[in-house]
Every structure is written in structure tokens, then in C-alpha cells.
């Protein structure tokens, strides 16, 4: 099969190209019009499929309570955003419940994830959270201080698919051996939901931490006498930085500043979407979280009666559009932030680019990044 467009995101610019697909791989990228094509997308944008590395849930459920049935529903929905790869992100929750969900996630990845969006692995955003206000909407009752034993326990539960771990480094009290251990197991470590000082972040990075969880949110801010976690995210060039670039969790100017400091290779745009995604405005009680959430007419979720955000309702393609057209983030920086950067952060080297021998995971969008078509393993998914 050959598809083409005058706006293929190839080698960091839009250009007229043809893409040849055989089975699940890209086998050739050619000049526009060279061969007879199966589909001509005209001036629509063809780009690598989007990757949302921080994505909890949808339609009333999250990975914390994942069943194999819901995981199928979720991975069947995500192609409508152009998302071809994601992580099942878990947060603070009763340990027994997490272990049950992780078992379902691991079995789904190994046995059932044959169609729809690829679940690349598990992202453990909680329960290794700060005791302070930086924990955000995560429940302190379920906090765990990480160690080798609990890392192994969680990883075993999901059939060794734990690939990304977030830690509030101040909770380690100067003993970073658990970060060393995660790195030795091939896991990536992020710093987040943390009130750590700049110096503590520096020490954690020296032990292998390589990313920051939803930068600005749930972390100690930048101050000229104590740069804090935000300052560390901006300062350390080798580190990636996630950002919920929706104008709600992060102001558009702040998002632009972060993008400039991280450049085209280290920014990662995420949704951090939770169970309220896909639900209509109103107030909902979630017994698993022990709270109610109110979704406003503008599609923003708050813990009812507070100004604390309860997570995101947003779609990654809409965040990409906001990043480019509202936050004025450089086009290449924004495009890389939803495609190749998350893959490189995770150490995955067979997707995220339009390139020979890469996965035929592609997304087709209009100029406002409304999804027109999504290809996963070379098969087209209609909305």
C-alpha cells in the first residue's frame, strides 16, 4: 500500500512525499507522485502516530481499576485522537487494587493488544508521591516509599511491563539506590509530585533520573534563590520534561518558556487524561478515589468544592493544536514532542518517525489537527 500527501512530516519539515507500507512496516519514502497510490491525502498532514506517555483513563475508568474489557475499549478509542502508542499510567491507589489492575494490564499487553493503540508498558506515576501539597489530587493515604522490593512486586504483577517510574526524590532521604535499581532493570525514572529542592533533583539525576512528570504541576516552583523542581526541569539539558499544554494546567506562556528551554528534542506533550475524559459536564462520585469531581461546561475537572484540578479531559491532538496555534511553540518542537521524543525517552527505536523499517503507525490530520485517519501496524482505523 502506498499513501501520499503534500504535507508529510518527514525529517522535521512538511514536504510532499509518498509512504509505502508492507504489513506493519514502512518500507519506503519516495518523492510525491512517483508511484501510483492507494490513497492521496492532498494537503492533509501525515505524521507519525502520536504517543501519549502519560494517560490514565477515559469514560469513567482508569488504569488503576483496569479490566481487560476496559483496556480493549480504551485502546479502540485512542486512535480517534491519532494516538497509536500509550502507557497505562497508574497513580496512588490501594496496593491490592493496583496489583490486580497491573495483572490485567500485563495480560492484556501479552495476549490481547493485537488491534488498536499499542500499550507500550506501565507508567507508575504513583504511589511514590510527596507528603506535601505537591501530591496534588493523589491520595496520601496510599503513599508508598519506594524500594527494590516494591518495584519488583509491581513489575512482576504486570509481567515485567513496568518501564517508567515516577518518584518524589525527597522521600528517599538521600538514599538513591532505588533509582539505581530501576535504571539497572531498564526502567526510566521521572521526578514528580515533589517538593524537592534543586540540589535533591540534581542528586537524583546523577543517579539516572531522566525526566520530569507534568512540569509545573505537582512540583516546587522556580524561585530566584531556590530554583526548585521547575528550575531543575529547565536547567538539565539531558532531561526530558512532560507538559500538559492545554492552557488550563499550564498557562500558554509558561508552556512556551518550557519549550524554549527544552528545545525540539526534550519536550514531551501529554494529556494526563483521567477517568473524567469523555464524560459530560456535571458532578461525579468516584468511590475508588474517595471523592467527587465536578466537570465544568468548559471541560475542566476539579475536586468538588475546591480549586484543585482533578486531572485532564483533553485529547492529545487538541493539545498539539493548542501548543502550535495558541502557545506559539515552535512547530518542530511541538511535533517532535508527541512523536519521537517520548519514544527516545523510553528507549524505543522502532516508531515515532516516518522512516524505513519503522512501524507503520501514522496519523492524518487537518490544519487544526482534527483526526482524519489513523494507521496502526499499517491498518487504517476510522473514527
**Record field, number of beta strands:** 21
Rounded to an integer in angstroms, the radius of gyration calculated over CA atoms is 20 Å
**CATH homologous superfamily placement of the largest domain:** Metal-dependent hydrolases
The CATH architecture of the largest domain is: Alpha-Beta Barrel
Identify the overall geometry: globular
Enumerate how many helices there are, as a single number. 10
Question: What's the pLDDT, averaged over the residues?
Answer: 95
Helix content: 25-40%
For this structure, the CATH topology of the largest domain is: TIM Barrel
Q: N-to-C terminal Cα separation, in Å?
A: 20 Å
Textual characterization of the structure:
By secondary structure, the chain is α/β, with parallel strands linked by helices. It folds into two domains: 2-45 and 368-381, no CATH class; 49-349, Metal-dependent hydrolases (TIM Barrel, Alpha-Beta Barrel), CATH 3.20.20.140. The protein is 27% helix and 26% strand. It has ten helices and 21 strands. The chain has helices at residues 68-77, 95-112, 148-157, 177-184, 198-206, 228-235, 252-266, 316-325, 331-337, 340-346; strands at 2-10, 13-22, 25-31, 39-40, 45-48, 50-52, 57-58, 61-62, 83-90, 118-124, 162-167, 188-191, 211-212, 240-243, 267-269, 282-286, 291-295, 301-303, 362-365, 371-376, 379-381. Strands 1, 2, 3, 4, 5, 19, 20 and 21 form an eight-stranded mixed beta sheet that branches. β17 (291-295) and β18 form a beta hairpin. α7 packs across α9 (331-337). It is globular. The mean pLDDT is 95.
Amino acid at each position: 500500500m502506498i499513501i501520499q500527501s503534500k504535507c508529510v512530516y518527514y525529517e522535521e519539515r512538511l514536504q510532499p512525499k509518498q509512504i509505502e507500507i508492507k504489513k506493519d512496516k514502512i518500507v519506503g519514502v519516495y518523492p510525491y507522485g512517483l508511484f501510483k497510490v492507494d490513497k492521496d491525502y492532498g494537503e492533509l498532514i501525515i505524521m507519525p502516530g502520536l504517543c501519549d506517555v502519560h494517560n490514565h483513563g477515559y469514560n469513567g475508568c482508569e488504569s488503576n481499576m483496569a479490566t481487560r474489557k476496559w483496556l480493549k475499549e480504551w485502546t479502540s478509542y485512542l486512535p480517534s485522537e491519532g494516538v497509536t502508542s500509550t502507557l497505562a499510567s497508574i497513580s496512588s491507589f490501594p496496593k491490592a487494587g493496583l496489583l490486580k489492575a497491573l495483572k490485567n494490564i500485563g495480560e492484556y499487553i501479552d495476549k490481547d493488544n493485537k488491534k488498536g493503540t499499542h500499550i507500550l508498558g506501565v507508567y507508575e506515576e504513583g504511589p511514590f508521591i510527596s507528603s506535601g501539597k505537591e501530591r496534588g489530587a493523589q491520595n496520601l493515604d496510599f503513599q508508598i516509599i519506594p524500594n527494590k522490593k516494591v518495584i519488583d512486586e509491581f513489575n512482576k504483577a504486570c509481567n515485567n511491563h513496568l518501564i517508567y517510574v515516577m518518584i518524589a526524590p525527597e522521600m528517599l532521604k538521600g538514599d538513591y539506590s532505588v533509582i539505581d535499581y530501576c535504571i539497572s532493570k531498564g526502567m526510566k525514572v521521572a521526578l514528580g509530585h515533589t517538593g524537592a529542592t534543586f540540589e535533591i533533583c540534581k542528586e537524583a539525576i546523577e543517579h539516572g533520573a531522566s525526566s520530569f512528570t507534568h512540569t509545573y504541576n505537582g512540583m516546587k516552583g522556580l524561585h530566584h534563590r531556590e530554583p526548585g523542581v521547575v528550575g531543575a526541569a529547565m536547567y538539565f539539558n539531558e532531561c526530558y520534561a512532560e507538559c500538559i499544554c492545554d492552557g488550563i494546567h499550564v498557562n500558554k506562556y509558561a508552556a512556551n518558556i518550557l519549550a524554549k528551554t527544552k528545545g525540539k528534542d526534550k519536550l514531551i506533550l501529554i494529556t494526563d487524561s483521567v477517568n473524567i475524559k469523555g464524560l459530560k459536564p456535571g458532578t461525579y462520585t468516584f468511590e475508588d478515589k474517595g471523592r467527587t469531581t465536578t466537570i465544568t461546561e468548559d471541560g475542566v475537572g476539579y475536586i468538588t468544592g475546591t480549586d484543585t484540578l482533578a486531572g485532564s479531559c483533553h485529547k492529545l491532538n487538541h493539545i498539539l493544536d493548542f501548543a502550535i496555534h495558541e502557545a506559539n511553540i515552535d512547530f518542530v518542537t511541538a511535533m517532535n514532542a508527541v512523536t519521537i521524543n517520548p519514544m527516545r525517552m523510553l528507549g524505543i527505536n522502532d516508531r515515532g518517525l516516518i522512516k524505513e523499517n519503522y512501524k507503520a503507525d501514522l496519523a492524518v490530520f487537518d490544519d487544526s489537527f482534527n483526526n482524519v485517519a489513523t494507521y496502526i501496524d499499517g491498518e487504517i482505523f476510522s473514527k
